[in-house]
Recover the amino acids of this structure.
């Protein structure tokens, strides 16, 4: 019983809740309700949720610092892996349906279109982070693990660029500006704290 | 044989039903009706029947039209709910579902269309006068959106040339400019500065006169739903959908190339010609393939290859002979 602390219950809850976006898509799919353009709808939905989980992952460190509660960290790996999970679905739709598993056409897309370049970069950078997310890898990499995982900042910037450039053609910056604001805040507080900590020293 | 095998995914440029084929099909339909090959021919039977079938919307105003067999593509028409529920009409919002939700505020009567500029007989036409200008035709056209999706729509309209001939363009008229209504009271999206309102589109005079170019008043046997550009819109099937201006209030003949809204807003992404062309990519996506809305398979339906001039090359390619379509995209 003592092992099943409140934070473990929270983890279980977050684990289940994080599957809801996928469950919704499956439910809509089963009821033929994925809009008139299912490929676009599911691609955008999974992309949005990957970004949401990226923001949640990035909010753990500030939450820990603001609350003084170290156990927030217990959620971070799971949220990061859910970000990867939705990013895999998002990228798979592009690879499989949009580009029809044609490597040449994918490569053309990546080279030619800045928003695809940014999205592909973000996805590729996620792979080593997901691969080194285990305790064993943390121990193996030691200090280098933390250095490697700073890639998440570059991923966040690439993901926002991916989204902004995707919307740029139609000047439709309503939703994307909210995400850009959230990411800017989450990265901004880290810079702010880094400067403040250095001054204190 | 599956329906797909009969139609194929890469239908040649001119898959307009030849008369003899159509007659032959009528005979087959009679046979099907007689029950001879009922099950096997059911898809053909249902396809031939749609033209006479009213829209599934019981409250819609009906619009009688004669099917023009010369202009009926063999692709299966997109479901009514998708044609009327998945629209780009930014005057009513950015989401594809917004026009169907918000366009009810559009007042389509009284409605006039001012035809002006370089013409001998400028005139302000009442919409009901336009509707009687020529006999209404039903035509089934492909519609390819620049965003990479497509539909097949049974339109009702008249050739735009019928109107153009009556106003007598002068010798110096080279282009036709179309203006969409921009009224903040009726169109919530006009308050959002996505584009420089009103929405403007344009065609070269020969494109406007082309027999494929329609002045559209209806679809699926009914008066144009508001979200589809009521009461009168343009239908130019070999160009990306944004060229087909909706809810038109003004048509102007000019000697200079019109500055169409999307080309002004994003000149690197959208041009004046905007002919459907699988080999000229949009900067942000490839135009080589398209998602056919409502095609079986849902999420996992393979994309279709996009056809040159949206499959109308045989009819329209000559207008662009010698022109660099990469420059004039």
């Amino acid at each position: 019983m003592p092992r099943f602390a409140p934070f473990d219950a929270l983890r279980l809850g977050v684990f289940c809740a994080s599957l809801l976006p996928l469950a919704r898509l499956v439910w809509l799919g089963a009821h033929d309700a994925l809009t008139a353009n299912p490929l676009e709808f599911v691609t955008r939905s999974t992309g949005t949720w990957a970004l949401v989980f990226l923001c949640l992952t990035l909010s753990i460190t500030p939450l820990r610092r603001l609350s003084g509660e170290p156990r927030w960290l217990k959620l971070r790996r799971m949220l990061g892996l859910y970000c990867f999970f939705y990013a895999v679905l998002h990228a798979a739709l592009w690879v499989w349906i949009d580009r029809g598993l044609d490597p040449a056409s994918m490569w053309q897309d990546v080279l030619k279109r800045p928003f695809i370049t940014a999205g592909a970069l973000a996805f590729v950078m996620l792979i080593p982070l997901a691969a080194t997310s285990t305790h064993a890898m943390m121990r193996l990499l030691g200090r280098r693990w933390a250095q490697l995982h700073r890639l998440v900042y570059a991923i966040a910037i690439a993901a926002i660029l991916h989204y902004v450039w995707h919307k740029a053609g139609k000047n439709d910056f309503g939703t994307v500006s909210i995400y850009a604001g959230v990411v800017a805040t989450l990265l901004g507080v880290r810079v702010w704290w880094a400067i403040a900590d250095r001054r204190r020293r | 044989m599956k329906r797909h095998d009969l139609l194929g995914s890469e239908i040649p440029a001119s898959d307009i039903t030849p008369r003899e084929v159509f007659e032959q099909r009528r005979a087959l339909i009679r046979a099907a009706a007689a029950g001879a090959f009922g099950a096997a021919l059911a898809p053909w039977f249902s396809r031939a029947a749609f033209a006479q079938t009213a829209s599934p919307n019981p409250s819609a105003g009906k619009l009688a039209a004669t099917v023009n067999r010369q202009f009926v593509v063999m692709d299966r028409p997109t479901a009514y709910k998708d044609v009327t529920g998945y629209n780009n009409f930014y005057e009513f919002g950015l989401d594809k579902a917004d026009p169907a939700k918000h366009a009810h505020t559009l007042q389509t009567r009284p409605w006039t269309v001012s035809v002006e500029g370089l013409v001998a007989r400028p005139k302000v036409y009442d919409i009901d006068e336009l509707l009687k200008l020529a006999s209404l035709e039903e035509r089934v056209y492909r519609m390819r959106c620049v965003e990479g999706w497509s539909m097949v729509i049974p339109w009702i309209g008249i050739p735009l040339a019928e109107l153009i001939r009556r106003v007598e363009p002068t010798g110096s008229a080279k282009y036709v400019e179309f203006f969409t209504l921009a009224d903040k009271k009726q169109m919530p999206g006009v308050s959002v500065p996505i584009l420089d309102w009103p929405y403007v589109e344009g065609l070269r005079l020969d494109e406007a006169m082309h027999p494929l170019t329609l002045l559209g008043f209806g679809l699926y046997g009914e008066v144009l739903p508001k979200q589809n550009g009521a009461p009168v819109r343009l239908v130019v099937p070999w160009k990306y959908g944004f060229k087909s201006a909706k809810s038109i209030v003004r048509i102007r003949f000019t000697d200079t190339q019109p500055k169409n809204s999307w080309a002004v807003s994003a000149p690197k992404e959208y041009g004046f010609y905007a002919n459907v062309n699988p080999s000229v990519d949009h900067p942000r996506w490839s135009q080589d393939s398209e998602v056919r809305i409502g095609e079986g398979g849902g999420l996992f339906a393979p994309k279709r290859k996009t056809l040159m001039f949206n499959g109308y090359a045989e009819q329209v390619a000559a207008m662009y002979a010698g022109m660099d379509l990469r420059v004039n995209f």
Observations:
- Chain A has a mean pLDDT of 93.
- The domain at 6-200 of chain A is CATH 1.20.120 (Four Helix Bundle (Hemerythrin (Met), subunit A)).
- Chain A has ten helices and no strands.
